[in-house]
Design a protein that fits this description.
It is a single chain. By secondary structure, the protein is mainly α. 70% of the residues lie in helices and 0% in strands. It has nine helices and no strands. Helix 4 runs antiparallel to helix 5 and helix 4 packs parallel to helix 7.
């Protein structure tokens, strides 16, 4: 079979690289959406259909399901990490920024269902992904909490890791019980952090 690419072995053009990157981003976005509704064991053809690409495109970027699952979560971790400073700069208050960021964090946790099972055969990969999760998101949560404390929006003393862990625990079981909405309890948790306003 003839090799893909320009004649003479020259590197792919910038437009081809840009197209490949767009395809990759499209696949990651589609896979994340499918994971929410169908879990990480969803058929690859379902992800391809959602992305509007052929299955060969997915396998070219992600040769194994574990590669795809890992890439989806790395992509979402990055999006969540990058959102923190943007929200802090644009929100009405640091507490509003924290609340909006936690909403994104919950979206991420909901799509995380089944991650451990999907990567069970590769415990090193799972451990590395968990470390990456903490390395990228703990500093963002710290920044948002510190800003909210400095602004007088919330009481001091909340530890970022405890907050993230607590929110994660509240999200457990959401998939198995349609009567349970963790966001309501998370809203109560955030209300408990808020410093009462003096009249």
């Amino acid at each position: 079979m003839a090799a893909e690419g320009p004649v003479g072995g020259s590197p792919p053009s910038r437009s081809k690289r840009a197209d490949a990157q767009r395809n990759r981003e499209t696949v990651l976005t589609a896979a994340a959406e499918v994971f929410v509704t169908s879990g990480v064991d969803a058929p690859i053809r379902q992800i391809a259909a959602r992305a509007g690409v052929g299955m060969a495109t997915i396998y070219r970027h992600f040769p194994t399901r574990a590669d795809l699952v890992t890439a989806v979560y790395e992509h979402q971790i990055e999006a969540c990490a990058e959102a923190g400073p943007s929200l802090l700069a644009g929100a009405d208050s640091p507490f509003d920024a924290l609340r909006q960021w936690i909403d994104l964090f919950v979206d991420f946790l909901v799509t995380k269902h089944g991650l451990a099972d999907a990567l069970q055969s590769d415990s090193d990969r799972f451990a590395a992904l968990h470390a990456y999760f903490l390395d990228r998101l703990l500093p963002v949560c710290t920044q948002l909490l510190d800003a909210a404390v400095a602004a007088g929006d919330i009481r001091p003393g909340t530890q970022p890791y405890e907050l993230m862990r607590g929110i994660g625990n509240l999200c457990v079981g959401r998939d198995n019980d349609p009567r349970y909405d963790p966001r309501r309890l998370i809203a109560l948790l955030l209300q408990g952090l808020e410093r009462p306003r003096t009249p």
